[in-house]
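Re: [ENG-882] Designed sequences occasionally contain unexpected residues at chain ends

Forwarding the minimal case from QA. Structure tokens:
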């Protein structure tokens, strides 16, 4: 974990709460968590259609049924509220330090790919595809992320995708969103809805924006 992520985690611990760990909430819930504006609440600018599809596709059941995206969002909000990460019935962070520490940990695989786990890469692909990731990274950081994700897509086939730490079975949500080739062709970290450039341009993922 990077230095700033550790600082945020220490703050969470001082408040009597542990950091968010992979698997504590579902993949769909983490996608929603990282789409929440850390400062103002609500959702960051994103591709509405893709974001809804990402939430629905990452649920274990119900994809393709009417209202799947709405149910996925409500279920994710319930998970995050139970984990004390979101305020109940709200898109407002209840515990910004924990949410920030987890986002920093996910982004570490962009700096240190060999230390990444498959869950972090899945989140980065989903966030990039839905337009969320570009909102949370500076211009320099987007360049790094784009390079890492392109490298990931080049190693993938229909059954496996490869990471610096090894190969993993293709997640079930990938074909639901059109497959690796479609995802790779549709991700553009420099042409996302409402994209801005805040924080550092050092590719260090240390922006004061709050992760």
């Amino acid at each position: 974990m990077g230095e700033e992520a550790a600082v945020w985690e220490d703050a969470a611990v001082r408040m009597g709460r542990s950091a968010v760990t992979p698997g504590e909430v579902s993949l769909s819930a983490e996608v929603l968590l990282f789409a929440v504006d850390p400062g103002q609440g609500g959702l960051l600018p994103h591709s509405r259609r893709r974001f809804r599809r990402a939430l629905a596709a990452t649920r274990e059941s119900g994809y393709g049924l009417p209202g799947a995206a709405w149910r996925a969002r409500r279920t994710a909000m319930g998970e995050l509220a139970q984990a004390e990460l979101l305020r109940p019935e709200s898109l407002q962070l209840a515990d910004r330090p924990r949410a920030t520490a987890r986002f920093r940990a996910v982004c570490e695989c962009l700096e240190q790919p060999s230390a990444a786990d498959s869950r972090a890469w899945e989140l980065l692909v989903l966030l990039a595809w839905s337009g969320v990731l570009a909102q949370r990274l500076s211009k320099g950081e987007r360049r790094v992320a784009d390079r890492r994700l392109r490298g990931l897509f080049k190693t993938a086939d229909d059954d496996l995708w490869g990471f610096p730490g090894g190969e993993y079975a293709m997640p079930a949500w990938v074909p639901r969103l059109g497959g690796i080739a479609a995802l790779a062709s549709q991700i553009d970290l420099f042409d996302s809805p409402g994209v801005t450039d805040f924080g550092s341009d050092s590719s260090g993922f240390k922006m004061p924006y709050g992760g």
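QA comment: On inspection the terminal residues look reasonable. DSSP finds ten helices and two strands in the chain. Proposing we downgrade this to a documentation issue.
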